[in-house]
Amino acid sequence: MTWVSRKASPADGAPASGDRPRTGGAPVLPPTPGMERFVERLRLRSVLPLDACAALLSLRGRTLEVGRGHQLATPGHEIDRATLVVDGLLGRFDQMADGSRQITALHIRGDMADLHSVPMPLPAWGIEALAPSTVLLVSHADLRSVSAAHPAIALAFWRDTVADSSILSKWAANLGRTDAATRLAHLLCEMGTRAQVAGIGRREAFALPMTQAQLADALGLTTVHVNRTMATLKQSCGLSIAAGHVRVTDWLALAEIASFDDTYLLLEPAEPQLVA
Amino acid sequence: MTWVSRKASPADGAPASGDRPRTGGAPVLPPTPGMERFVERLRLRSVLPLDACAALLSLRGRTLEVGRGHQLATPGHEIDRATLVVDGLLGRFDQMADGSRQITALHIRGDMADLHSVPMPLPAWGIEALAPSTVLLVSHADLRSVSAAHPAIALAFWRDTVADSSILSKWAANLGRTDAATRLAHLLCEMGTRAQVAGIGRREAFALPMTQAQLADALGLTTVHVNRTMATLKQSCGLSIAAGHVRVTDWLALAEIASFDDTYLLLEPAEPQLVA
DNA sequence: CGTGGTTTTGATTGTTGTCAAATGGAGTGG
DNA sequence: CCACTCCATTTGACAACAATCAAAACCACG
To answer: Could you tell me which residue ranges the HTH crp-type domain spans (chains A, B) (predicted)?
Structure first.
């Protein structure tokens, strides 16, 4: 397991997760590398005033490079920081009694993987790197602090939690009510769309560095069946996955099979602002 | 469909389950009937200062009695109020293209069924009464306003959204990774526990006014298979469901089959308070 | 005493899981 | 540069859980 841990702040010699953000308009430190991706993500769904953006950008964090399989949160173990995906792919999962697992969320660049843990630091779920990834660990205290100082941020955080919920809801619906091909197709449509929105690919060609076993855990299937289902889609939609890179010739056919409709991703900025 | 709608405003000479103790110091209006259930629910997971409780209790709302099948929110239709369950049972659902549906959440007394809609008024999901129910409609504007005025409330709302998410996550895991008996047993364990916590029954004997068809929609099964599975549990755990009332002789056996562990319900009040 | 919805039962089909083994590819050390 | 290993992918044969189709029994309600 690779732990290339290092301080993310530029001109400091100090270790530890010590320093606090300067929230005000003062002579700010250069933004923490990676943090701007999170701000972009939030602004996808919320209108944030400039000072709120600045406050977020000035949050310090600890950058970490982790290898595939590295656990960033464990069910039942309290944590005091959230995990921002700077690059790579993380998964949220539920562990079953018999050892099998169900992946309940995938997180790509710009996602704060466990924003949930800010109000609820003792998670019932786990977070794991599904591929080699770069993450930025941001302390709950700091996040709560900007959230308290800027009501717009509090609302944006809440809103992002709801978006996550909406995605999970669709996921559950697919698990309960659709067959293997639909489920796989839907996952690919979703991740393609999300990658495109995040600016790291097109929906017909994007990175998804997951093994078929991990896909199986996400889709509630077995590895064997994922493989067979993929062979089907390969034929009907010109799908190919090689070296963690997805490519689809006939995206519309894929979306058709998936009954894909992206409204559940809540990509329109929600109107309602704060009341004065 | 019965629509006994009425304004729940204070100075109406109205009858009903009206008057409440005055909580705050100020010359407050009598609390809206039903609202105290929501406050109890929030206080299960969050510590709320007195003035925040008072603010919540003084929120106005419109009481509604709805019959089974009544839709309180429709996917893709913007709404401007949230739905508090005063009594009965609501379900959140996802509609599939072929007309089948998946229920993704059940809401009992005290639950704000779509707190989600406060930051995201255009839902991708629907809310429906699974049984005759009494609900209290509370405007988003009011909820956002108390939330902005009381950071503790904002955090409590966010936290409740996370709890809902955690439950959904477990639901998804069960849909993806367990068989019919486990799934049904788990649902019964969960609803029993939640009913007990909400103070409306014991986990071995509580109301769950759902038809087997609705259960099937919640469990991702067919009516037929729900029925067969129930017959199995009837034998192994002394389960009986009659007239919407569940009774279990051997609760431990049921929990065993379900691999039930209630930590995901997040019933411990989360410690982290606001930073000053 | 009918009527409509819900529950129950039976027979059969089909999607997916299980078990097992072969193939392929990337990285490692001799 | 070539075995060798580890892991991921692919293929096959078979079993099992759950869906489907169909109809009967039951129950609350007017």
So the answer is: 178-252
